[in-house]
Amino acid sequence: MSEIFGIPTQALFGQLLIGLINGSFYALLSLGLAVIFGLLNIINFAHGAQYMMGAFGAWFLLNKLGLGYWEALVIAPVLVGLTGIVIERTMLRRLYRLDHLYGLLLTFGLALIIQGLFRQEFGSTGLPYSIPKALEGGQNLGFMFLPNYRAWVIVFSLAVCLGTWYLIEKTKLGSYLRAATENPRLTQAFGINVPRMVTLTYGFGVALAALAGVMAAPIYSVNPLMGADLIIVVFAVVVIGGMGSIMGSIVTGFVLGLVEGLTKVFYPEASNTVIFIIMAIVLMIKPAGLFGTQK
After folding, report:
1. What is residue 270's DSSP assignment?
2. Closest CA to 25 of 183, 196, 150, 139
């Protein structure tokens, strides 16, 4: 068996694959956070709970309505995104002129309520969700075995991330969104419905979290607490990339996933803390984040 730096090749590339999988979810979740914070200035601590709701949405659609993975990939994010729209219209809209701390406290409370309700109903035991038949099996690459579903998750999440970046940074709709954030009164004077754009933006960010949840369901068990620990890591990713930076969230998410995977190979004891160590170093050198701009 061939080795690299004394590590068996199959083990090394296996951990890199796990790192890319984790990085895919870090990128998608941090992208949703970056969209919401960058355009609404709301720190959405309920993001982990909404990620969990996406996974449970897929589970419900399969077990209650008989709808499979491909239908859930569309329906679950839309449904969870609609709950985000309700939250924005009834609660968050009242906080836009207040300090960021109020939005953080509200969404943190919502996360605890949502997780508590699901935990009371389903307990802490994970619920299984099978891989779609079209993506079962895998490819033998010689140096490692690549499961088809995991390859799909990496490619699809990257496509969604880049598509979102293009939509916000390179299209007329994206320019309207940025203008509505920077100068809402002037933007509204041009006939653009700013409150509606803000609502849809929050709903879109929540839908991205739910989409990540649907994609995670066949890999991890569907669990009421599946987003509780992940959201802390995702916040670290957002801080490292730069709060509100779309491209920063994408690049940092995938890179930190790989770094975490490599750390599990060469120094497993630090694998759970390496991202936070990097965050501390980045904040000391560049407080605005790697892709952020100091205001």
Report:
1. G
2. 150
256: Cβ–Cβ under 8 A, 6 or more apart, which residues? 23, 26, 237, 240, 275, 278
Q: Is 12 exposed, middle or buried (0-12, 13-18, 19+ CB in 10 A)?
A: buried
pTM of the model: 0.91
Tokens of 88: 């924005």
- Give the tokens for residue 192: 């653009």
For residues 282, 288, 294, 295, the Cα torsion angle rounded to the nearest 10 degrees is -160
CA atoms within 13 A on the CB side of 101: 1
Decide: 179 and 187 in contact? Cβ < 8 Å. yes
Q: 289 — phi, psi (to 5°)?
A: 95, 165
Rounded CA separation 150/242 (Å): 28
Residues 91, 96, 98: CA angle, nearest 5 degrees: 105
| Neighbour tally for 277: CB within 10 Å | 12
282 near 271, Cβ under 8 Å?
Answer: no
Chain centroid offset of residue 191 CA: 33
User: d(Cα 176, Cα 180) in Å, to the nearest integer?
Assistant: 6
Cα pseudo-dihedral 259, 262, 268, 270, rounded to 10: -20
Average pLDDT on 228-254 reads 88
Instruction: Encode pLDDT of 82-120 as tens digits.
Output: 999 999 999 988 887 778 788 889 999 999 999 999 999
Amino acid identity, position 234:
V
- Nearby residues of 70 by Cβ (< 8 Å), 6 or more positions away: 132
Distance CA 238, CA 183 (A): 24
**DSSP-derived 3-state class of residue 194:** helix
For the stretch 195-232, pLDDT in tens is 788 888 899 999 999 999 999 999 988 999 998 878 88
Task: Show the DSSP H helices in 130-229 as ranges.
Answer: 148-170, 172-182, 184-189, 194-216
C-alpha dist (Å) from residue 290 to 149, 223, 271: 31, 33, 21
